[in-house]
Amino acid sequence: MAAASAPPLFTEAIIFLAATVVAVPLAKRLGIGSVVGYLIAGMAIGPFGFNAFGAAPMVLGVAELGVVLLLFVIGLELDGSRLWRMRRDILGLGTAQVLLTGAAIYALLRLMGKDLEPALVAGFGLALSSTAFALQILQERGQLSSAYGQRAFGVLLLQDIAIVPLLAMVAILAPSGAEGASQGALQEIGLTLGAVLGVVVAGRYLMTPLFLLLARSKAREVMLAAALLVALGSAGIMHAVGLSMALGAFLAGVLLAESSFRHTLEADIEPFRSLLMGLFFVAVGMSLDFTVLAVSWMQVAAGVIALMLVKGGLLWALARVSGSSNADALRIAVTLPQGGEFAFVLFTAAVSQGIFGASEASILTAVVIVSMLLTPVACAGLDYLGARLKARGVEAPFAETFEDAAPVVLVIGFGRFGMMVAQLLTSEGLEITAIDLRPERIAYARKLGYKVYYGDATRADVLMAAGAGKAALIALCVENDSVMDRAIHAIRDACPQARLFCRATSQTHALALTRLGVDFHIRETFESSIAFGRAALEALGIPDERINEIVEDVRRRDRERTELQLNEGEFAGTDRLHALTPRDEASKRDR
């Protein structure tokens, strides 16, 4: 009996996983980052290596979904106000970088004797950096939210937008391309504006009610399906009108950044994003044609050196002129000097339009891929140089800064108890993030002006997405004891640095929290009961001094009883409940 054939892509998946499991840990061990590991794995298994995986363009088409999901997750972290604050970096620094880098490379190519049209397309195609590579490097280093990381992201966002006019330029530069170009351009602008408006309206008025409805169903897999639908659907709409898919996903993420579901969406999509991003880098490595490298290695080497020096130098200068410190300017320069994935799109369009031949496109593609390969190496080199200078007592001009470091509190559970805790913290101006699992409670809190997000505190990925990794204190204010117990274990595993304050629902629960070693706990009704009892004593005419004695004595006996219960069991120390508060001689005489 013949053996059944393997499912589609089964063998390819095993090869991909095996190559990455070997190459990525090795690259990280050498200090050059996981991106280089994925590239090496792709070069090894690709059509120009062992040819074990199939055609790179087919894989690259699927793997680009990783870039789409990456931009969606980035968008979730940027609300509209924050994006508006970045406008100078996007429109100013980003536009200047594309124009000046494109013009500089164009001038170099013209000096080398290239014709005007190929030089323009190659110059501006190489001016675009790799969104996937740069953002992966920034995320791995935890620098995406830093000052230089945000400026670098602004440049990348402008480059994603720039692909539209650059593709229009290719159509105009093509032989007989100008004929009817203006009419086509107007039609394309109209379609683009319509698509953007459609995504904005849907994001503003439809997405949050949809996720509220799905959250009430308590079906996590449906929430995940909806998250992928939103990210990929908005990407597909933008792609249909000629815009970048990644830009469409980013816009959807920004629109959901103000919603209550951003942290859960981010946690749900992260595994898919990571896997597809790895596949994307593998596919890029597979695309490197070693035949072209062997025949035209001098041209490729010269192109890589010129590209990284020109782009890196201009990035450093523009960042310095626009207000960055020397440290940030250097880091931007070594993060964005490579060519980008959109260059592949531009060069393919130029070949199809007859602007330059396939051999020239192959050389330019090799320049882009090799520059990608060298970017993590350049970043690691800058870090190594800084560490060596610091070891010799020289303060490196590109050392890390912690200007944005501030205590952050994560409040989990936003009922009446959690809301009062949040009010006290925000009254001091402290930054808090609050999560809850009840949609109706989230909606009510938002009506009161609080930003509360949907999230399950027992999931470590949700906790990290909500910022637990950088929280100075986590306040667990949930009512369910078993949920709190699981959340405590998740928090201790994921972010042991945070101080853990807990709400105890009963004396038994308080004992359990003590055994778990939380930093602080309090029974939810203890203080209110003390206040209630104090008011009752006042109403009965008991003097204030005597009331203070009683309150202090009750607190002392409660502490003693708790100690006895921890050592001897739940019913130990019951005599402490019924003792009379002693009177001193002075108070007896007064009475």
Automatic annotation (TrEMBL):
Q: What is this protein called?
A: Monovalent cation:proton antiporter-2 (CPA2) family protein
Subcellular localization, as worded in the UniProt entry? Membrane
The record places domain RCK N-terminal at 406-522
Q: Report membrane topology.
A: Multi-pass membrane protein
Q: Which family does it belong to?
A: Belongs to the monovalent cation:proton antiporter 2 (CPA2) transporter (TC 2.A.37) family.
Q: Where is the composition biased (Basic and acidic residues)?
A: 573-591
Which keywords does this chain's UniProt record carry?
A: Antiport, Ion transport, Membrane, Potassium, Potassium transport, Transmembrane, Transmembrane helix, Transport
Q: Which Gene3D superfamilies match?
A: 1.20.1530.20, NAD(P)-binding Rossmann-like Domain
| Record-annotated membrane-spanning stretches | 6-24, 31-50, 56-78, 90-109, 121-139, 151-173, 193-215, 222-255, 275-293, 300-319, 339-356, 363-385
